[in-house]
Amino acid sequence: MNVVLLGAPGAGKGTQAEKMIEAWGLPHISTGDILRKAVADGTPLGVQAKTYMDAGELVPDLVVIGLVKSRLEEPDAEKGFILDGFPRTGEQAEALDRELASLGRTIDAAISIDVDRDVIVKRLTSRRTCRSCGKIYSLLADPPADPAVCDVCGGELYQRDDDTEATVRNRLAVYDRSTAPLVDYYRSKGVLHVLDGDRPVDEVFADVRRIVEG
Ligand code: AMP
């Protein structure tokens, strides 16, 4: 199963991807995670990407397309994959189709998770991530006992640089401008599924399961 997760930042793509990995063991390809790791490691890619990311702008298409192409050619992606945060522009969607065609494959489902904007701003500005184990918390919906310490491993919890309110608003504007049109792109290919993401995680996942398992 080759799946694309669409939806504004904070819609819950990463959370649903985690549940999909648990259920089906598909590789999770998150361009945001790959880029954040490059920034943390201080690689040339990270240095190039950081300015865009901190401003909530998109990293140039050529850079991200190259990353995803090489990731899709790794052996574990042969059994299927979950793309999270890619494609984000028409250019990226077309490059993805070309790459998949060269591998004799297509996208089976594009799942768009819809959430009200005010809910997203609240969700993202209250999001905290553990520096050690990567667990994601919500200070509102799923608060740790101590807002600065991970319940699981005792690691330090931090707020992503791009989860401040001003940057979140810019990321949403970028989404509307560049990424929202992809909903129509996948609808025209007959693979689009739109889900209401303003519901408990397990309810959303029940719908995802129906789509993936048919
Ligand atoms: P995310 O974790 O998916 O919200 O991504 C965080 C940031 O990484 C975005 O705001 C962009 O700056 C960058 N990024 C992630 N995926 C892409 C992509 N497909 N195209 C361009 N920039 C991206």
Please, could you describe this protein's structure?
The protein is built from nine helices and eight strands. It has a five-stranded parallel sheet, sandwiched between helices. Strands 6-5-7 form a three-stranded antiparallel sheet. It is 49% helix and 15% strand. The chain is globular, with a radius of gyration of 17 Å. The protein has helices at 13-24, 31-41, 44-55, 61-72, 90-102, 117-125, 165-179, 181-188, 201-213; strands spanning 2-6, 28-30, 81-84, 109-114, 127-130, 136-138, 157-158, 192-196. With 214 residues, it is an alpha/beta fold. Residues 9, 31-32, 35, 52-53, 56-59, 64, 85-86, 88, 92, 162, 171 line the site of adenosine monophosphate (AMP).
List keywords for this structure.
214 residues; alpha/beta; Rossmann fold; 5-stranded parallel β-sheet; 3-stranded antiparallel β-sheet; 8 strands; 49% helix; globular; binds adenosine monophosphate
